[in-house]
Specification:
With about 120 residues, the chain is of the alpha+beta class. Helix content is about 20%, strand content about 45%. It is globular and about 40 Å long. Residues about 110-118 have low confidence and may be disordered.
Length: about 120
Amino acid sequence: AWNAGDIETFMQGYLNSDSLRFAGSSGEIRGWQSTLERYHRVYPDRAAMGTLTFDLREIRMLSDKHAMVFGAYALERENDQPTGLFTLILDYTEGGWRIVHDHTSADQIPDEVHENTE
């Protein structure tokens, strides 16, 4: 869905609930609607969305209805290629597995660190 430019379908993987939590470099967001709005704000068009790939590094069952997924992502865009890590908590619901907690962090080297390595 993401690589087709369809954020709404991508969001079907998240629990449509006010209890959904997304944490990233811009802080914490609560709720499905707020998370959807954040995605639209950060990725306003197809070019900003780029092509997304995932590297699933660990899937751990926490119980028969709860799981943790750890992995890396890479976003390929014309002018940059952001990468990072994520941890997801999923609950098994009537609609299947849904993300209830998403903590995503970008691999960014602060300018002062970059300057010290040149």
